[in-house]
Amino acid sequence: MDSKLWWILVILILIPKQGESKRMILEQEECNPEDLKGLTSFKAGIHLDSSNRLEAWVGSNCCKWVGVYCSNTTGRVAELRLPGFLETNETFSQTSMVGWLSPSITLLTSLEVLDLGWLISLSGTIPSSIGFDLPSLRILKLSLNNLTGPIPESIGKLSRLEEIFLDGNSLSGQIPSSIGRLSQLIFLNISNNLIEGPLPSEMSSLHNLQSLDLSFTRLNISSIPKWLGEMPSLRRVFLAGVGIQGNFPELFQTTPSPLLELDLSFNNLIGIIPEWLGNFTRLYKLNLSRNSFESKIPSTFTSLNDLGVLDLHSNMLTGLIDVVFLIEGSFPGGTLTYVDLSDNLFSGEILEIGTGPQTTTVFLNLSNNYLQGHFPDSIGRLVSLRSLDLSYNKLVFGLPEYLANVSSLEKLKLQRNRFTGEIPNGYLKLKALRELDLSDNGLVGKIPDGAPLSDFPRSSFSGNIGLCEKPLSPCKF
Ligand SMILES: *[C@@H]1O[C@H](CO)[C@@H](O)[C@H](O)[C@H]1NC(C)=O
Ligand SMILES: *[C@@H]1O[C@H](CO)[C@@H](O)[C@H](O)[C@H]1NC(C)=O
Ligand SMILES: *[C@@H]1O[C@H](CO)[C@@H](O)[C@H](O)[C@H]1NC(C)=O
Ligand SMILES: *[C@@H]1O[C@H](CO)[C@@H](O)[C@H](O)[C@H]1NC(C)=O
Ligand SMILES: *[C@@H]1O[C@H](CO)[C@@H](O)[C@H](O)[C@H]1NC(C)=O
Ligand SMILES: *[C@@H]1O[C@H](CO)[C@@H](O)[C@H](O)[C@H]1NC(C)=O
Ligand SMILES: *[C@@H]1O[C@H](CO)[C@@H](O)[C@H](O)[C@H]1NC(C)=O
Ligand SMILES: *[C@@H]1O[C@H](CO)[C@@H](O)[C@H](O)[C@H]1NC(C)=O
Ligand SMILES: *[C@@H]1O[C@H](CO)[C@@H](O)[C@H](O)[C@H]1NC(C)=O
User: What is the pTM (predicted TM-score) of this model?
Assistant: First the structure.
């Protein structure tokens, strides 16, 4: 083609039609050049974005880019939000970004919110100059990525920081003592990293800190420092798998702020679960699982009126479990939705399940104990139950008939007990049941014919000498 003609064609295409000209001008607007450079470098660091959000990062008005929010006063980028876990139209999807976190992210000097959490494969380090370059930062979310290196010392300069989520990376080194200067900090989650001790005592001046999670790090806090129990706003304490030794830490007895959540699981705690825990009347979640506690569940637990989640599994706890179902509860039916007492030395007959104030339980695991006697029909009152595990106990007599009323039941594990008699016909009403194990009991007679019972594999019923019919062999009588 003649080159003159070609140029005319180009010009014709480029001349905007009337009415479109205004839009063209808007599209040509540029965002702050430093912001543009920072975001362009960020994009260049990512080789693969399964959410395809960065694909639409073209042109030079970065304020219009997906995940980027500019201040309408300064025009500077104030928020970069590209979380990997997405909610669109009430459906959730997990996306990922493979690549490096560009250090040029620090060019976004007006940034208040940086949310690059849950991108799974985002690698690299937290830029060491972050504290000097992003003075307005309030929220820093880099959870569940592949970041390495230390938490920069300069982080202590970010005096407006309210939330730090660095959990689920491979960050190493110590927590910098400068973190104690973050007087606005409310949430701190460093769990699941390679962070080592000691814990800087400067953290004691985090007066606004409400939620602290240091679980599954290499901190090796053999005893919890005293100042932690004196932090004025602390309400949620997660110190799972950090090597705590000895008796239940006394320092929690006198915390200035009433504890709402306490997780000391996966440590080396011994001795008794103290009576005074019953004074934590606002406690919602207690996880003491995987320690070596040797005591009864204190009778004072009946005062834990707000308790929703109780996980005491894998200890050496003894006595009756009934106290749990006698917790008063702030609401009719109680608040307790999740109870795991499995893998302990509990014994005796269960009398209060379903007859006590607590009837809204969804998950109940009493497996691997020495529970004896008749399992009460009152279990039928736990109408929200989805998972019931009573396996590996010494329960006798017939299967509870009224369990048939718990139509929400999805998992039923009763294997390795001494249940006798026939499988109640009413169990055919358990239409939500997806997992069933009745093996190794003394059950007899015909397996009730029909869904869902006859659809389970033979292994669900094996080890019951007297059982017959589908899916086992036909009855001989
Ligand atoms: C900036 O935007 C916010 C929210 O969209 C609005 O409430 C506020 O009035 C705007 N400020 C100015 C100066 O336009
Ligand atoms: C979400 O729903 C809206 C309206 O119902 C629809 O226009 C849009 O395409 C949907 N988006 C996705 C990602 O499904
Ligand atoms: C994490 O980063 C390392 C290099 O630091 C790399 O070898 C590895 O493949 C990355 N893993 C993922 C899941 O991206
Ligand atoms: C901290 O992050 C982990 C995920 O890495 C999460 O399971 C935990 O609930 C978080 N802790 C708090 C207190 O939010
Ligand atoms: C953790 O600390 C205890 C006591 O301070 C020490 O005996 C132990 O060796 C440490 N463990 C590790 C893995 O560093
Ligand atoms: C309690 O802690 C254990 C071990 O850390 C964990 O596996 C379990 O999921 C926790 N329970 C609840 C209810 O969060
Ligand atoms: C528990 O609270 C009661 C009164 O509420 C108090 O008398 C008792 O000393 C407290 N127990 C402990 C061990 O703090
Ligand atoms: C109940 O606890 C036992 C032992 O802790 C565990 O093996 C089992 O998977 C749990 N059952 C359910 C349904 O979670
Ligand atoms: C279970 O349902 C039966 C009727 O199918 C009823 O007679 C019985 O009272 C119910 N039991 C409980 C504990 O709700």
Answer: 0.90
